[in-house]
Amino acid sequence: MAKAIMVQGTMSNAGKSLLVAGLCRLFKQDGYSVAPFKSQNMALNSFITKEGLEMGRAQVVQAEAAGIEPSVLMNPILLKPTNDMASQVIVNGEVYSNMDAKEYYSHKRDMVPEIKKAYDKLASQYDIIVLEGAGSPAEINLQENDIVNMYMAKMAKAPVLLAGDIDRGGVFASLVGTMALFNEEDRAMVKGTIINKFRGDKTILQPGLSMLEKIIHVPTVGVVPYLHVDIDDEDSLTEKFSRKGKVALIDIAVIRLPRISNFTDFNVFEYSDAVGLRYVDSVGQLGNPDLIIIPGTKNTMEDLLWMRQCGLEAAIIKYAAAGKPLIGICGGFQMLGRELKDSDHVEHGGNMKGMGLLPCTTVFEKKKTRTQVKGHFITEGNGYFSALHGIEIEGYEIHMGQSTVEESEESSVNFLTQITEISSKKTDQSAGLFKDNIYGSYIHGIFDKEDVVKTIVSVLLKKKGLDESAVSGLDVKAYKEEQYNLLAKGLRENMDMEAVYRILNEGV
Fold this sequence. Notes:
Blueprint: E1 3-9, H1 16-29, E2 34-37, E3 40-42, E4 46-48, E5 54-56, H2 57-66, E6 77-81, E7 86-91, E8 94-100, H3 101-107, H4 112-123, E9 128-132, H5 150-156, E10 160-165, H6 171-181, H7 184-189, E11 190-198, H8 202-216, E12 220-225, E13 250-255, E14 260-261, E15 275-280, H9 283-286, E16 291-294, E17 296-297, H10 300-310, H11 312-321, E18 326-329, H12 331-336, E19 339-342, E20 350-353, E21 361-377, E22 392-404, E23 414-422, E24 425-435, E25 438-441, H13 450-463, H14 476-494, H15 497-506
Parallel strand pairs: 1-9, 1-10, 2-9, 3-6, 10-11, 11-12, 13-15, 13-16, 16-18, 18-25, 19-21
Antiparallel strand pairs: 4-5, 6-7, 7-8, 14-17, 19-20, 21-22, 21-23, 23-24, 24-25
Helix pairs in contact: 1-2, 1-14, 6-8
């Protein structure tokens, strides 16, 4: 079985996911086979494996950092919030049930056999497993039914590194308070602390580190600076939503839906110096961008209703009527259609008019579509982005609804893509729709090929009368590799890796 080490945090967004990704890359660089593991993840950013199974994107990022294929074994339980009180529960990559918080809390320990089975299988395949906790391990109202923090550390016999976020302030209090709320057994599992997201002169911090060690009797194994690496964020705690888009030649606005999912689809646009990408949630913020994107959502009908009530729907329809480009991905694609039907109460329930910009109707079904796809654009001589024609795409679909066009209209409809492969099986079918300047697709990751972004940005520049020849292609995989290496370098330079290896080898 693999040796194990676990990163827990004093709070949500303490930087656990990034630290795990960095350790995965660092151990890989040192010649070990390594894999990430998080027993339970709550996030709306998810991914479909080659087997058609769904897992959290944070573990996908960590798997990429480790240089291995993502597996649902790395994230056996995924919770995808459908509203403020309930989540879709995904077990081993498949939908298990929709549960409210109280119901799930009473069933959490039922998941333990599946978690143990996944962990044991993963641990039999690698030298090292780097585990990630969730939220705070010291939520005393939740500790009794914990399956992701100290309970998991004990199951995996994994010593714990406890990370605190100094950027928010109160890092010493949060570390001391967390240790104080542990029982003696849990406290003994913590073998080192990490001060994360530090800015400034470390020598000024030293007296505090000495006092901290005297109080909690645990050494500090790292003071990690605020690392400026471009790696996919885990969920809605991302700083992207509050950050102003950089001033650039092209302005892209992504609608920040209340239940936005898979917003990592658009990160690739930020790699271009010519593009400023921003997230907007009001008409006042929208302005007059060069491109609007409506992203995926865990509840299409409720988020469309929200857009309708806050005036964004009307503003977007007016924008599209002026001939400016609009793209909808997954739930955003469903919104662009004529009607949404949910007789089985999969999401909101009932029927609702769509935005009426594309000639399709979506019917929500209890069965979830989960598949990887390959294909190419079929936009020859037609539409705003006709230059995309023939460019290859890869991605994945995750959705509960099916969107169809009436037979009487099929001959006049422009399909956006030709799918040639579904989850490694050859096929030949059309998918997605477009009409003039309006585009819709179910495929997440449709922009990840460098030629796709280059072409879209070039078209937008040309429409503004700007020189599009300066836009270069970008090797997305090479760019990601560079960022993972920078992350590992940052950890190696600012953590006591001798101490980390000693903790890993000694275990608990």
